[in-house]
TrEMBL record:
<protein>
    <recommendedName>
        <fullName>6-phosphogluconolactonase</fullName>
        <ecNumber>3.1.1.31</ecNumber>
    </recommendedName>
</protein>
<feature type="domain" description="Glucosamine/galactosamine-6-phosphate isomerase">
    <location>
        <begin position="9"/>
        <end position="226"/>
    </location>
</feature>
<dbReference type="InterPro" id="IPR037171">
    <property type="entry name" value="NagB/RpiA_transferase-like"/>
</dbReference>
<dbReference type="GO" id="GO:0017057">
    <property type="term" value="F:6-phosphogluconolactonase activity"/>
</dbReference>
<comment type="function">
    <text>Hydrolysis of 6-phosphogluconolactone to 6-phosphogluconate.</text>
</comment>
<dbReference type="InterPro" id="IPR006148">
    <property type="entry name" value="Glc/Gal-6P_isomerase"/>
</dbReference>
<comment type="pathway">
    <text>Carbohydrate degradation; pentose phosphate pathway; D-ribulose 5-phosphate from D-glucose 6-phosphate (oxidative stage): step 2/3.</text>
</comment>
<keyword id="KW-0378">Hydrolase</keyword>
<comment type="similarity">
    <text>Belongs to the glucosamine/galactosamine-6-phosphate isomerase family. 6-phosphogluconolactonase subfamily.</text>
</comment>
<dbReference type="GO" id="GO:0006098">
    <property type="term" value="P:pentose-phosphate shunt"/>
</dbReference>
<dbReference type="Pfam" id="PF01182">
    <property type="entry name" value="Glucosamine_iso"/>
</dbReference>
<dbReference type="InterPro" id="IPR039104">
    <property type="entry name" value="6PGL"/>
</dbReference>
<dbReference type="GO" id="GO:0005975">
    <property type="term" value="P:carbohydrate metabolic process"/>
</dbReference>
<dbReference type="InterPro" id="IPR005900">
    <property type="entry name" value="6-phosphogluconolactonase_DevB"/>
</dbReference>
Length: 237
């Protein structure tokens, strides 16, 4: 099922999405005694991660992954891992072994993608098929990309692997594939800003091309919820 939450502004999006994610983590742990969550990169999630770091959660039961990563060292200013560790993970008592950053130091993106894929299979205990993350956080670019699934790239065609290499122009990235995202229990989109209006309208347009607007390919078997602020909103009055 898809839910759409239109909120007044970025602050309201940060507050409502933070509360929702924290409650979803608590609910998952109450049901399963564990929670697997994959993080989004970019700028929108950072204040949400800072809020989550202030919450009272059983950190030892939370396992943190990344849905995509720029192919740079974890010390690089563009690193999604760096952003999440500084905003959240370094501020809480989460065991180091509960944090699973995407490997980006092998100087071979596809080999590192395979390495992370194996790490996921080992964690979830699935040799074949797709594991089901409890929660996957996603942003959406102004071109309609999500994770590092960019328009008209080969990554969009990957339907067997869990992790592949995405390309933003000539910058390589590691990314969850569409089928891996679509196997999640909860997929949460975080979309803020006027620059997202056109892409968002296209993503919700039944006639649009999902290869042009890859966020449209995200139709999880579980629940999908969009947090959208009024600046980005072009789908509902
Ligand atoms: O590594 C990344 O950059 C993200 O995973 C990417 O998919 C991001 O979520 C969108 O580009 C939106 O980014 P903003 O939140 O900064 O608008």
């Amino acid at each position: 099922m898809t839910q759409i939450k239109i909120v007044a502004d970025k602050n309201a999006l940060v507050t409502s999405a933070s509360d929702f994610i924290i409650n979803k983590i608590k609910e998952t742990i109450a049901n399963k005694n564990i929670c697997s969550i994959a993080l989004a990169g970019g700028s929108t999630p950072k204040p949400i991660y800072q809020n989550i770091a202030q919450s009272d959660l059983p950190w030892d039961k939370i396992h943190v992954f990344w849905g995509d990563e720029r192919y740079v060292p974890p010390t690089h200013p563009d690193s999604n891992e760096k952003m999440a560790r500084e905003a959240w993970l370094n501020q809480v008592d989460i065991p180091a072994q509960n944090i699973y950053p995407m490997p980006t130091l092998g100087n071979n993106p596809m080999a590192d993608a395979s390495k992370y894929e194996q790490e996921l299979k080992d964690f979830f205990g699935v040799a074949n098929g797709f594991p089901s993350f409890d929660i996957i956080l996603l942003g959406m670019g102004d071109d309609g990309h999500t994770a590092s699934l960019f328009p008209h790239t080969n990554a969009l065609k990957e339907c067997d692997r869990l992790i592949t290499v995405g390309n933003k122009e000539d910058n390589q990235r590691l990314t969850f594939t569409v089928p891996l995202i679509n196997h999640a229990q909860w997929v949460i989109f975080l979309v803020s800003g006027k620059n997202k209006q056109e892409a968002l309208k296209a993503v919700f347009d039944q006639e649009s091309d999902s290869d042009q607007y890859p966020s449209k390919k995200i139709q999880p078997q579980g629940e999908l919820i969009w947090f959208i602020d009024e600046d980005a909103n072009s789908i509902r009055n």
